[in-house]
Specification:
Blueprint (H helix, E strand, L loop, with lengths): L1 H30 L4 H10 L3 H7 L5 H106 L2 H27 L2 H9 L5 H9 L1 H35 L6 H25 L1 H21 L1
Helix pairs in contact: 4-5, 4-8, 5-8, 5-9, 5-10, 6-7, 7-10, 8-9
Length: 310
């Protein structure tokens, strides 16, 4: 009985050892299925699990890697194919956006051009209206100056000729000198108004200096003031001085019984005095423009106050 137990125990141990050995060899065979040496060893040892292992799909790790690569490539191709319509859609969207932007830019440019054209038309209309207004103002000013010079020349020429013809020689000469001085003084005023600075009179107006506002009006209307002072009154004084000098020449010839005509000498003397006096007056006006304009503004202020009182 003891011998049987020992033999059964030994058999069970052998079976366990063979089982474990077979499992280890099976694992090695699974790792190296394509190696023929391992297969021959298994056949030599007559392992039962050889058919089970060989019945499995013989796939090498290289084949598995190739299949994996092929699968990855297929997945990538599918992704690319899926991405292609997306890219095309994005391209179409970008093209549409570009087209919309270009259309918007064109419309903006067209709108800007239309706005510029409208502005130009408005400016042209304003310019034409301003030109028409200026032309109307110039015509009105011409008519006013014409009427004023005509009336003043008639009045002064009548007074001077009749007055000088009835006067003696000395008062006639004094009247001639006065007429020349009046022409020079008004020429100085016209030059001073064109040269004077308006800002100085604004400072005086803030301090409430008399005549500052009237002097500002004179400076703002400098072209008309200069036209009246230098052209209208200056030309009238020139005509009057010529007429008075002719009358004085007749009186000199009659009183002193001279045989030659004195009128040429008197006319030359009068012209020299007027031209030389105006030349000196322009230098005075350029150097003392503010004082001259302020003095004229004071006179206008006094006249305006007297009119308000009356």
């Amino acid at each position: 009985m003891g011998k049987l137990k020992i033999s059964s125990f030994v058999n069970s141990g052998v079976q366990l050892g063979t089982f474990l050995f077979e499992t280890l060899l099976c694992k090695v065979l699974l790792a190296n299925k394509n190696n023929r040496n391992f297969i021959l060893i298994f056949k030599f040892l007559k392992i039962n699990k050889l058919d089970i292992i060989m019945s499995q799909k013989e796939t090498s790790p290289i084949g598995q890697n190739e299949e994996e690569r092929i699968g990855i490539k297929l997945k990538e191709n599918t992704k690319k194919e899926k991405a292609k319509p997306r890219k095309e859609a994005e391209k179409t969207r970008q093209e549409m956006k570009k087209a919309v932007r270009q259309e918007n830019a064109k419309t903006e440019k067209e709108n800007e051009k239309e706005i510029e054209e409208v502005k130009e038309k408005m400016e042209q209309k304003k310019r034409t209206k301003e030109k028409e207004k200026k032309n109307d103002e110039n015509i009105k000013w011409f008519v006013e100056v014409f009427i004023m010079t005509f009336i003043l020349s008639i009045v002064f020429s009548y007074i001077s000729t009749n007055g000088v013809s009835n006067l003696s020689l000395v008062p006639a000469i004094l009247i001639l000198v006065a007429v020349i001085l009046v022409g020079i003084i008004f020429d100085i005023i016209g030059v001073a108004v064109t040269v004077a600075n308006e800002n100085e009179f604004h400072a005086k107006a803030t301090k409430k200096v008399k005549g500052s506002k009237d002097s500002i009006k004179l400076i703002r209307n400098a072209p008309r003031v200069a036209n009246i002072c230098a052209d209208v009154i200056g030309d009238i004084c020139g005509v009057l001085s010529g007429a008075i000098s002719a009358l004085i020449a007749v009186k000199i010839t009659n009183q002193f019984g001279l045989n030659f005509d004195v009128q040429f000498l008197l006319s030359a003397l009068v012209s020299a005095l007027t031209v030389g006096g105006k030349a000196l007056g322009k230098t005075v006006a350029n150097n003392n423009s503010t004082k001259i304009v302020h003095a004229v503004g004071m006179l206008f202020n006094k006249f305006s106050r007297e009119k308000q009182k009356s």
